[in-house]
Write a structure and sequence with these properties.
Chains A, B: This is DNA-binding transcriptional ArsR family regulator. The structure is a homodimer of 119-residue chains. By secondary structure, chain A is mainly alpha-helical. Chain A is built from six helices and three strands; from the N terminus they run ααβααββαα. The first copy, chain A, folds into two domains: 69 residues, Orthogonal Bundle (Arc Repressor Mutant, subunit A); 45 residues.
DNA sequence: GCACTGTATCACTGCTCACTTATATAAGTG
DNA sequence: CACTTATATAAGTGAGCAGTGATACAGTGC
């Protein structure tokens, strides 16, 4: 499932917005979504599953609860897709900083690869 | 239709990628998409319509052709939705520049509103 | 152990939406 | 004008997916 397919659903977008504030239990997410969209608990649970399966969220058991958090890597991929359009509205300073960040990230990823190859 | 629903389709994303390079005729888009996705001309035309109707593309007649171009405003809205997540991977410099740009945009929009109210 | 709460999965269903074929509209060309 | 090319619209069909109710599973406290 492509990143944008995941974000194509309003419920999933809302869940991510909620998780952006910080870790939340399945039940907490469920409560808000039920109130706002009027859908059942299984429906919310399935959306959480989609988010998990596609790397948009991570889950951590805490007693009987399961705490969800955003995985920002997935959203960064979306952000990078926008890159090619961004130059039309991004001022040069931000573009430069983004470029610097991207270079950093590339170097980091490359370093990780080297670690794997020569452990 | 929400911006992310529009981007939820791989064909539409690809079309936007093509248009990001510059203005293209319906036929030119069609040729590429047909080759890559194997769908019919009407199918492509319908996707172009969705992009038009949702403000992701503008069209300009040129003789018998119709030239399509990206409307960046729509993509900026998507970009702004990502804003709340971006702080996790954006370096401070870029964040500052983005903030400056946003202030600019807000002032511009406000100015436009004033123009309307006192023409 | 049992009951209870919190969460996930299963099996099914209905609706949305992307596709197709056929056709309409519009502009250039002889 | 008829003919062709370029593009859009119409009508109908099929698949996918988000929803439901029922159920299973896991952890907590008695």
């Amino acid at each position: 499932m492509h990143a944008f397919d995941v974000l194509g659903d309003p419920v999933r977008r809302r869940i991510l917005e909620l998780l952006a504030e910080g870790e939340l239990s399945s039940g907490a997410v469920c409560a808000v979504i039920r109130a706002e969209f009027g859908i059942s608990q299984p429906a919310v649970s399935q959306h959480l599953r989609v988010l998990r399966d596609n790397g948009f969220a991570v889950v951590r058991p805490a007693g009987t609860r399961r705490l969800y958090a955003v995985r920002h890597e997935a959203l960064r991929d979306v952000d990078e897709w926008l890159e090619r359009f961004r130059r039309f509205w991004t001022p040069p300073l931000a573009a430069l900083a983004t470029e610097v960040a991207r270079g950093k990230r590339r170097r980091r990823l490359a370093a990780e690869d080297n670690e794997k190859e020569t452990p």
